[in-house]
Design goal:
7 strands; alpha/beta; Rossmann fold; about 240 residues; single chain; binds NADP nicotinamide-adenine-dinucleotide phosphate; seven-stranded parallel β-sheet
Length: about 240
């Protein structure tokens, strides 16, 4: 029960890794507030995570809405002990075919939104709290069609280092989680189902990871077990980038 009495906010908590994390945080005693765009999956995630769970419908790329979102967080939780900024979109577009529209959408959701979602949460965070940002192994492994996604995720990894060094004196730890292939709805939503089998074959463990396996790494970084850890990138990829 590492999170007894803790208030946890998860951007992208209504699906995949974020939902698995919400369930795990709740199991370990936390009060969980999840944020996502889809009203249906948000409602079912709130039910699945359990009593006391709060859901807020919001788009992380809509910076004008952040004040209202954190107003609702303040009202529901009073403070944030753990901020897990995990929301994200995928998508494969060859470099030659990239458009500014697709680039902007990717960066607004996967980098600009998370940047300001952390900044605007800070008034609710105190000494001893922690932030986990979800990046991807895409930030250090080249993959065709992945340039915009990988660049945004490289930004997230860099953000964890740079926000981390600014907040360390305030007693707030900031770390990064870089999942490899994790079996979530993301693949289907991004039109990348064809990658399922080749990626499984490429992975040293010959499988995709379970969302709970990535979620438990996020819980570790957020917990007191990681009390002397800030600015790191924890890779959860079945050995894909190491071997
Ligand atoms: P997922 O099941 O598709 O979940 C993505 C989550 O992000 C959903 O809760 C979604 O909510 C939310 N989200 C997306 N756009 C949003 C927006 N504009 N505003 C607010 N919330 C938004 O995918 P996942 O695999 O769990 O992904 C979680 C994170 O892991 C992402 O950052 C992803 O890039 C990263 N990641 C995943 C893998 C993998 O193999 N699965 C690998 C590396 C990194 P709605 O459904 O309501 O939009």
């Amino acid at each position: 029960m590492r999170f007894n009495g803790k208030q946890v906010v998860i951007w992208g908590g209504n699906s995949g890794i974020g939902l698995a994390a919400a369930v795990e945080f709740r199991k370990e005693g936390a009060r969980v507030l999840i944020i996502g765009r889809n009203a249906d999956t948000l409602a079912s995630a709130v039910r699945q995570v359990g009593p006391d769970t709060v859901g807020i419908r919001a788009d992380i790329s809509d910076l004008d809405a952040l004040e209202s979102v954190y107003g609702q967080v303040r009202q529901a939780l009073g403070r944030i002990d753990v901020l897990f900024v995990n929301s994200g979109i995928g998508g494969s577009i060859p470099f030659r075919e990239m458009t500014t529209k697709a680039w902007d959408e990717m960066f607004n959701v996967n980098l600009r939104g998370p940047y300001f979602a952390v900044q605007r949460a800070l008034p609710l965070m105190q000494r001893g709290s922690s932030i986990v940002l979800t990046s991807s192994i895409g930030h250090f492994r080249g993959l065709p069609g992945n340039s915009h996604y990988a660049a945004a995720k490289a930004g997230i990894r860099s953000l964890a280092r740079n926000i981390g060094v600014e907040l360390v004196g305030e007693g707030i730890r900031v770390n990064c989680l870089s999942p490899g292939p994790i079996d979530t709805p993301l693949l289907g939503r991004s039109g990348m189902e064809a990658l399922r089998e080749p990626v499984r074959e490429l992975n040293p463990m010959k499988r995709w990871g379970d969302p709970a396996e990535a979620a438990r790494a996020a819980l570790f970084l957020a917990s007191q077990d990681a009390s002397f850890i800030t600015g790191v990138d924890l890779v959860v990829d079945g050995g894909m980038c190491s071997f």
